[in-house]
Amino acid sequence: MTADVIVIGAGIVGAACADALTQGGLRVVVIEPSLAVSGATGAGMGHLLILDENEAEFSITRYSRDRWNQMAMEMPSSLEYERCGTIWIAAVPEELPLLKQRCAFLQSRQVRAEILDSQQLAEAEPNLRPGLPGGLFIPDDAILYPPAAAGWLLKRAEQRGAAVLTGKRVTHIQAWGVELEDGSRLEAHHVVCATGMWTPQLIGGLPIQPRKGHLVITDRYPGFVRHAVMELGYLKSAHGRESESVAFNVQPRKTGQVLIGSSRQFGVTDARPESRIISSMVQRAIDFMPRIAQLSALRAWTGFRAATPDRLPMVGPVANRPNCLLCAGHEGIGITTCLASAGLVSAFILGDRPPLDPKPYAVERF
Ligand SMILES: Cc1cc2nc3c(=O)[nH]c(=O)nc-3n(C[C@H](O)[C@H](O)[C@H](O)COP(=O)(O)OP(=O)(O)OC[C@H]3O[C@@H](n4cnc5c(N)ncnc54)[C@H](O)[C@@H]3O)c2cc1C
Questions:
Q1: Distance, CA 291 to ligand 1 centroid (Å)?
Q2: Ligand 1 atom closest to Cα of 329?
Q3: Which of these, 65, 57, 16, 64, lies nearest to 36 by C-alpha position?
Q4: I want to staple 361 with a disulfide (CB 3.0 to 4.6 A). Which of 32, 117, 267, 315 is the partner?
Q5: Mean pLDDT for the stretch of residues 4-11
């Protein structure tokens, strides 16, 4: 045997799996055709947040966000981790009851959350347009720089003996291990498939679809935005199945840059940035923060989220694929949720108690 476990894909999900599995004392080989951050991980925003549309989404985001916060003391400064909190904005008074409902739900689950009135909101984020009705503040949400976070998790795994093979692509998964593009074979007791939106190429018949996203980053304007700030309507964009949507979502970066998102598109596979989408996304941001119009944008890019029909990842054994575990389909929250998914994978392989109920994320639910 080459290893106890082969992890296919070195995005943040594969990196988190390698980290968790080596913590469990297993010999791990990670295989990646390109760079560790060539997929969605290199394109993501790095918001570590709790979402609460349903119990399964709440459980996986809550567990993972809290794990990231617990790991903060160990992180090198290159991860640019900051517990800046999230402010969800009500654009119109009719959205206030929903914010209050979410606040009550979070508080009932011992998550720190508070409602900001119009004045408190303006004081918290002075660049928001005046007169917005209010916000929901979740102080323990955080941000980090995803490429550095993935690199750090991978390095921790390597320090515990994992081998990371870059420049190698897996072509087939077998019960005994994997076959590579160059015709060679690697054997292992278990294979973890963490290949994001490319997963259907290795395991047919899975309902994972690419969902394109655009982001824009500005020059440095320290203090321009202090929290991760999102409109409540972001949830409609993220949870809906519309072919195209944009929502106001901005983040401060430690560098003083402002990261502006976000868009969602189904049915597009061309990775080139589209000026039409960027314009509508930036216009949405200007509607909420008018002074964004005066900032200089440096760069725009795109990435593809691996979307499942219910927006939850697929984690666990795969029918008719002995010794293979799937860990993919993290859509727009994989930077946050990779830690819970990795915990589930490691519990499956080691036979340990899972960190959360695995059922809502089981592959066979489709
Ligand atoms: C615009 C945008 C904004 C986002 N913002 C956030 C956010 O704020 N917070 C958050 O939590 N999440 C966010 N996300 C989601 C997050 O980025 C993803 O869920 C996460 O990066 C998925 O990680 P992954 O490792 O599964 O996939 P990827 O990073 O795509 O990694 C998959 C890897 O598998 C490799 N691979 C593919 N095929 C093979 C093969 N045959 N053999 C070997 N290796 C292979 C690829 O090269 C790749 O490196 C965002 C995503 C986008 C696009």
A1: 32
A2: 26
A3: 16
A4: 315
A5: 98
**66-99, pLDDT tens digit by residue?**
999 999 999 999 999 999 999 999 999 999 999 9
Gap from CA of 362 to ligand 1 centroid (Å): 19
Return the ligand 1 atom nearest residue 213 CA. Answer: 1
Residue that the structure tokens 């923060």 belong to: 289
Buried b (16+ CB within 10 A) or exposed e, 126-147: ebbeeebbbbbbbebbbbbbbb
Instruction: Point out the ligand 1 atom lying closest to the alpha carbon of residue 201.
Output: 41
At residue 119, the 3 state secondary structure works out as helix
> Hey, what domains does the chain have and what are their CATH numbers?
3-45+146-208+311-365 (3.50.50.60), 86-139 (no CATH), 209-307 (3.30.9.10)
- What is the per-residue pLDDT across 130-166, written as a single tens digit (0 to 9) for each? 999 999 999 999 999 999 999 999 999 999 999 999 9
